UniProtKB/TrEMBL annotation:
Domain of life according to the entry: Bacteria
Naturally occurring in which organism (per UniProt): Pedobacter suwonensis
Protein name as catalogued: CubicO group peptidase, beta-lactamase class C family
InterPro entries hit by this protein: AmpC-like, Beta-lactam-related, Beta-lactam/transpept-like
Signal peptide: none
Beta-lactamase-related domain sequence ranges: 17-325
Amino acid sequence: MFWPVATNAQKLNGQIDSLIKRVITDQQGPGGVFMVAQKGKVLYQKAFGKANIELGVDLAPEDVFQLGSMTKQFTAISVLLLEQQSKLKVSDSISKYIPDYPAGNKITIHHLLTHTSGIKDFTKMKSLAGIAQREMTPKMMVDFFKDEPVDFAPGERFEYNNSGYVLLGYLIELISGEQYADFIQHHIFDQLGMSHSYYASDRQIIKNRAYGYQKKENAYVNKTAINFSVPFASGSLMSTLADLLKWQNALIQNKLLNTAETNKAFSPYKLNNGTLFNYGYGWHLKVLEGLPVAAHGGSIFGFKSMGVYVPGKDIYVVGLTNCDCNSPTLLTENIARLAIMHLIKK
């Protein structure tokens, strides 16, 4: 009586392998790690390619990857943790905490969380190259972009924006009295037993760190260096498949936030004109195979990431790659599609 389920699982695993091998074609080059979990338990987990090309070390599912913009999930939940502690409201204007911010009385924390602030995205500024490898304080980062002309009035439209999340990291520091990295460590990583997750560092010795690569013409090169104080709360965390599963499980089990606060992260919001847009707080809200999903990717020199959660079937799919030549975005979504079609409710 168990054969159909076992056969279905084997078929799913084989199809996932085939999907991945179409994208990661060079097993001697950098690659990626992928996981499918349902109801909090791992159903599929494999590594492809090399963690270090120079040493010929294979990737393993336990390896630590830079997350890029998947960091935004942790920043958004940190803001909601502070709201739960009555230390802020997402409706607060940023001028309440940064009095000299230009037009800060019109920009709310909600605008920052939903990419509707209109603030100039610092990653699109030509002068970014001048600071990319410098040690920047959060205030220095905010000062770097705050006087730039805004792209639109707050709430007028949705436009993905890294500056907003840098500002949120700065607000977390101002309101909590803790450095952002310490806040994430104490209130999230330590609480959830995420012992292989970090605020990124090139100097710290990190066990099982995957090295990052880029592809130039037909050759791999070591990733371009960046000081992690620059992406800061918009993209500077590192983690593993197992720790990200702990994170996702904690969110749906309300281990960090109550239901009302959690729902804020996964609800769509409206622009000033009443138009609904598909972004919550730190997650894109999409539809796959007719089911609503919460998803977010990330990209930082040498690394790309993607996580997809399907509430209706309690499926979580993650892809982490150590070359920005191997994008897991569409691949992870396609794995999620396969999982939705194959995984029967138990």
